[in-house]
Amino acid sequence: MRVEGVVQGVGFRPFVYALATRLGLAGHVGNDSRGVFVEIEGPEAGVADFLASLTRDAPPLARIERVSATAITPNGAAGFSIAPSDPGGQRSALVSADSATCEDCLRELADPADRRFGYPFINCTNCGPRFTIVRDVPYDRPLTTMAGFPMCAECAAEYHDPADRRFHAQPVCCPACGPRLHLLDAAGDELPGEPLKQAARLLAEGHVLAVKGLGGYHLAVDAGSEPAAAALRARKHREDKPFAQMVPDIGGVRRLCALDALDEDALAGDAVDGTAVDLAAERLLTGRRRPIVLLPRRAGAPVARAVAPGSHHLGVMLPYTPLHHLLLREFGGPIVLTSGNSSDEPIAYTDDDALARLAGIADEFLAHDRPIHIRTDDSVVRPLRGREMLVRRARGYVPEPITMRTRFRRQVLACGAELKSTFCLGKDDHAFMSHHIGDLENFETFRSYTEGISHFQRLFDVIPQVVAHDLHPEYLSTKYALEREGVELTGVQHHHAHIASCLADNGEEGPVIGVAFDGLGYGPDGAIWGGEFLLADLTGFERAGHLATVPMPGGAAAIKQPWRMAAAYLDGAYPCGPPDGLDIQRRNAQRWHDVLTMARRGINAPVTSSAGRLFDAVAAILGVRDVINYEGQAAVELEQRADLSERAAYAAGIDEGDPLRIAGSDLIRAVADDLLAGVDSRVIAARFHLGVARVIVTTCMLLRERSGLRVVALSGGVFQNLLLLNQAAAGLEREDFRVLVHSQVPPNDGGISLGQAAVAAARDRLA
Ligand SMILES: [Zn+2]
Ligand SMILES: [Zn+2]
Description:
Bound molecules: zinc ion
Strand order of the largest sheet: 6-13-7-8-12-9-11-10-14-15
Oligomer: single chain
């Protein structure tokens, strides 16, 4: 038998050994370059049982992609053994993602009789650090950041015993031989006392604590303390982007969030009540990946205002390392656990860097001496129709590959976009998409990006021959691609990459009607695209429809100040001038005229078909937000404003040329008219969302008539908006379309690199 997938370093051989021994079968199991091989010999019924159990009962961290079995002549072997590994053979084995502490380890952690009682670094084959400690392959202790911790005799005995849960668990350790905690003051000097007890006491006293986690440092405060949360916000220079919280247990999450209201309809009128627990949300929270889960906030949830000011959602996660479990148990309530950085810098992950950069933010540091090899943020997800939608894909997911339907002919590097940057390597039938690296706008982030590419190339033994990149000439990722020597370059249009990403995410190749709605992307005509209907497969696309363009007065300034988009849209919607009495005009009276002049004369006012800018304009008109403090804020708050019990939808005209042009200004006029007529802004926000969903459906129906295509792929950052996504998907399905949405990678620019890789591979097959 041959077993392929993530089957090394996850306790697969001991599992096979135990299974075969229990069934009284003879033979052996071993690792090689392709995964795990097994020879089994015994009565037919036993062998059949063995085969059935092999995939059904596989260890929790294993991901089996293929099992193939061949009958061979019995050789009369006696007993079952684990064959020694061929040391050169493990290079193409898959490294697994970091995984939350398992139940067995938690039991030992809490057992005073266990030798790892209360030890903050307990782990086993089924849990613990992986990706964040691996320096090189083969995945073996000397090539991890555990190299500096030689195993004691007891740990070594467990490590070498095939019947033990810690057999070949590379990070295995104990209080006698493993890493240790330290509590440091802001100068880096060690504080006296038991670090965990002291740390919990400091949190309770309102201190800001830096805590070293799996992929970097976090900043922690008591989530119930207004002064502590406000201090953290002020010191981090973070205005109102919500902080994530770590909550001791699922009961604690229920006190904060509506786990049961994931059918968003049930949330009507903000009345959140009910007892039927949504299994999808609970599974996400308690699973081994442990992302931050964005959930509807309960009215009156006991959270300091400064944690998530004005937000109807909270980002919560459960403890995922033994250190977190112990700290939360000691503290006894939810804590803010936000990335250890100041404003837009990348998260600090080395001890020296953390002390240097976080000294002005954190009062004390709960640190330890196990190095982090690669900076990795927490992942962020939203529950979606019983599944998950990734907003940020990082710790717990990476570096697990996406399995491609068709193999890569040559090895590929896809360089991604600019914001929420990731890259992706393609080899055989695997796409290895990187963790979220961040916005490539400062040196430190760009260095993470280039170092990340080198690290992944080494880890997965990839030497790219084809390099894919965005068409935007100013993206640092594009410039990086153009500087790679001795490779074949292929440029992939931004929204084509979004649609290709959605196809690859679903194991499909098209052709489809692709709806790519996002903030901005470079169009081949040099214009700024972002509200696109593409007839696309993996190799190419035709732009079949788009939002009618509007000027962006002030260029980048119009992104930061949504009221400027409102001004430009209102100007187009009312040729004789917008009606009197709109509050937005009064609020921005000083610059209104200048901005309109810019828009009309096209001075520093590039035109765009961006759907993101349309949402911005509506948010500003409704007074939700004139100026944003973080990317996408206006649209996020507009979604939260919508009254989910509303059923009416605004209509938008479609100019049936080729390409089709959708009149976003019709929606703007409906919004402004209703506002002036005194309609509640929550009702207007809902009618706008439903109107966008409806025009998506209508446009797709027109394109089906023209093209005969009956499958629609929805991608782009705007589809992180679940109200829009659910309405559009449901409307399309009612019209007999098959709808593809994302599940393994984010719909935002974080998923672009996968799409670029898929396009590069498809073009390479044509060549
Ligand atoms: Zn464990
Ligand atoms: Zn030990």
